[in-house]
């Protein structure tokens, strides 16, 4: 008899983001098992039951959950979405003190149950909490990452595609740095179908992406979460889809290149700070941190993002 290895995804938090991730993973068949933990057992159990009822129409995924952390034991990937949520008018950094304490208390308990797992931090402020989690965990480099600007980059790609009238998958554009207000687009490397974005013109030959257009797109991509939160209280569907792609890349060893938050070592002058840069993601987490060319303005923006994160880390005693 051949033993077939099964994959397991652990999710911490049965709120809007955690359950959107579970739903996306169920539909896409990302993992063979999904374990969902929440401080509120009744909520976790109800979410699991609701998801399980849909399994006849999806992939053969076993879903379990409740208020016992053992439900995530032996997970291959653990995604942490638990924490105080961002309220209308509140910045991601306003959440830092409360959520840093949650991460510090939670990580040792998770590692005890899933020591080989790759940990993906989604809770905001994600870069600060990635740094906190990596420090507490003491795991090898690349095993603790943050979802970072994967979603921000997806938002940017969609916005560019809408303006250019092309499919989002044909837009290659990244947002780097903090997952927050100091994030910035890497316009110097952005392309549509292999052509530099700033070369695109309309039918009359006029540039589609002039400086004003690029500034507007960047602003929309970075700040769009605030309008979503103001309208419905949370962002959850897109981040759920973005995170399930990270999970798939790890479980399937895809060697996918995407910007995730990881503690950097002498990257464009930033050292010991978690920020998003392009990384190769596969089995074991971040397999390689990629160096990317930046023009002087982008380099300065990256420095500012690092300084903003360093200030917060010093404030909470992390540095």
From TrEMBL:
<feature type="binding site">
    <location>
        <position position="172"/>
    </location>
    <ligand>
        <name>beta-D-fructose 1,6-bisphosphate</name>
    </ligand>
</feature>
<keyword id="KW-0963">Cytoplasm</keyword>
<comment type="subunit">
    <text>Homotetramer.</text>
</comment>
<dbReference type="InterPro" id="IPR036291">
    <property type="entry name" value="NAD(P)-bd_dom_sf"/>
</dbReference>
<feature type="active site" description="Proton acceptor">
    <location>
        <position position="179"/>
    </location>
</feature>
<feature type="binding site">
    <location>
        <position position="157"/>
    </location>
    <ligand>
        <name>beta-D-fructose 1,6-bisphosphate</name>
    </ligand>
</feature>
<dbReference type="InterPro" id="IPR015955">
    <property type="entry name" value="Lactate_DH/Glyco_Ohase_4_C"/>
</dbReference>
<dbReference type="InterPro" id="IPR011304">
    <property type="entry name" value="L-lactate_DH"/>
</dbReference>
<keyword id="KW-0520">NAD</keyword>
<protein>
    <recommendedName>
        <fullName>L-lactate dehydrogenase</fullName>
        <ecNumber>1.1.1.27</ecNumber>
    </recommendedName>
</protein>
<feature type="binding site">
    <location>
        <position position="38"/>
    </location>
    <ligand>
        <name>NAD(+)</name>
    </ligand>
</feature>
<feature type="binding site">
    <location>
        <begin position="124"/>
        <end position="127"/>
    </location>
    <ligand>
        <name>substrate</name>
    </ligand>
</feature>
<feature type="domain" description="Lactate/malate dehydrogenase C-terminal">
    <location>
        <begin position="149"/>
        <end position="316"/>
    </location>
</feature>
<dbReference type="InterPro" id="IPR001557">
    <property type="entry name" value="L-lactate/malate_DH"/>
</dbReference>
<dbReference type="InterPro" id="IPR022383">
    <property type="entry name" value="Lactate/malate_DH_C"/>
</dbReference>
<dbReference type="Pfam" id="PF02866">
    <property type="entry name" value="Ldh_1_C"/>
</dbReference>
<feature type="binding site">
    <location>
        <begin position="152"/>
        <end position="155"/>
    </location>
    <ligand>
        <name>substrate</name>
    </ligand>
</feature>
<keyword id="KW-0560">Oxidoreductase</keyword>
<feature type="binding site">
    <location>
        <begin position="83"/>
        <end position="84"/>
    </location>
    <ligand>
        <name>NAD(+)</name>
    </ligand>
</feature>
<feature type="binding site">
    <location>
        <position position="86"/>
    </location>
    <ligand>
        <name>substrate</name>
    </ligand>
</feature>
<comment type="pathway">
    <text>Fermentation; pyruvate fermentation to lactate; (S)-lactate from pyruvate: step 1/1.</text>
</comment>
<feature type="binding site">
    <location>
        <position position="43"/>
    </location>
    <ligand>
        <name>NAD(+)</name>
    </ligand>
</feature>
<keyword id="KW-0021">Allosteric enzyme</keyword>
<comment type="function">
    <text>Catalyzes the conversion of lactate to pyruvate.</text>
</comment>
<dbReference type="Pfam" id="PF00056">
    <property type="entry name" value="Ldh_1_N"/>
</dbReference>
<feature type="modified residue" description="Phosphotyrosine">
    <location>
        <position position="226"/>
    </location>
</feature>
<keyword id="KW-0597">Phosphoprotein</keyword>
<feature type="binding site">
    <location>
        <position position="235"/>
    </location>
    <ligand>
        <name>substrate</name>
    </ligand>
</feature>
<feature type="binding site">
    <location>
        <begin position="122"/>
        <end position="124"/>
    </location>
    <ligand>
        <name>NAD(+)</name>
    </ligand>
</feature>
<feature type="binding site">
    <location>
        <position position="17"/>
    </location>
    <ligand>
        <name>NAD(+)</name>
    </ligand>
</feature>
<comment type="similarity">
    <text>Belongs to the LDH/MDH superfamily. LDH family.</text>
</comment>
<feature type="domain" description="Lactate/malate dehydrogenase N-terminal">
    <location>
        <begin position="8"/>
        <end position="146"/>
    </location>
</feature>
<feature type="binding site">
    <location>
        <position position="147"/>
    </location>
    <ligand>
        <name>NAD(+)</name>
    </ligand>
</feature>
<dbReference type="InterPro" id="IPR018177">
    <property type="entry name" value="L-lactate_DH_AS"/>
</dbReference>
<feature type="binding site">
    <location>
        <position position="92"/>
    </location>
    <ligand>
        <name>substrate</name>
    </ligand>
</feature>
<dbReference type="InterPro" id="IPR001236">
    <property type="entry name" value="Lactate/malate_DH_N"/>
</dbReference>
<dbReference type="GO" id="GO:0004459">
    <property type="term" value="F:L-lactate dehydrogenase (NAD+) activity"/>
</dbReference>
């Amino acid at each position: 008899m051949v033993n077939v290895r099964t994959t397991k995804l652990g999710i911490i938090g049965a709120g809007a983001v955690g359950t959107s991730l579970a739903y996306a993973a169920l539909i896409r068949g990302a993992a063979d098992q999904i374990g969902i933990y929440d401080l509120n057992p009744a909520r976790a159990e109800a979410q699991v039951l609701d998801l399980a009822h849909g399994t006849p129409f999806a992939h053969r995924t076993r879903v379990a959950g409740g208020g016992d952390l053992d439900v995530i034991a032996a997970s291959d990937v653990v995604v942490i979405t638990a924490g105080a949520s961002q309220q209308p008018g509140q910045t991601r950094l306003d959440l830092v003190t409360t959520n840093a304490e949650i991460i510090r208390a939670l990580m040792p308990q998770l590692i005890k149950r899933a020591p080989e797992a790759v940990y993906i931090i989604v809770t905001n402020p994600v870069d600060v909490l990635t740094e906190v989690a990596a420090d507490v965990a003491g795991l090898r480099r690349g095993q603790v990452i943050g979802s970072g600007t994967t979603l921000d980059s997806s938002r940017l790609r969609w916005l560019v595609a809408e303006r250019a009238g092309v499919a989002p998958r044909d837009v290659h554009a990244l947002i780097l740095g903090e997952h927050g207000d100091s994030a910035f687009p890497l316009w110097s490397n952005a392309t549509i179908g292999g052509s530099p974005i700033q070369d695109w013109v309309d039918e009359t030959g006029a540039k589609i992406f002039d400086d004003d257009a690029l500034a507007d797109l960047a602003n929309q991509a970075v700040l769009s979460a605030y309008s979503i939160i103001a309208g419905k209280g949370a962002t959850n569907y897109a981040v759920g889809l973005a995170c399930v792609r990270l999970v798939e890349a790890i479980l399937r060893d895809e060697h996918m290149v995407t910007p995730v938050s990881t503690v950097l070592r002498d990257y464009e002058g930033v050292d010991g700070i978690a920020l998003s840069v392009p990384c190769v993601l596969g089995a074991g987490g971040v397999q390689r941190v990629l160096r990317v060319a930046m023009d002087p303005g982008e380099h300065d923006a990256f420095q500012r993002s690092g300084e903003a994160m360093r200030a917060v880390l010093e404030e909470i005693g992390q540095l």
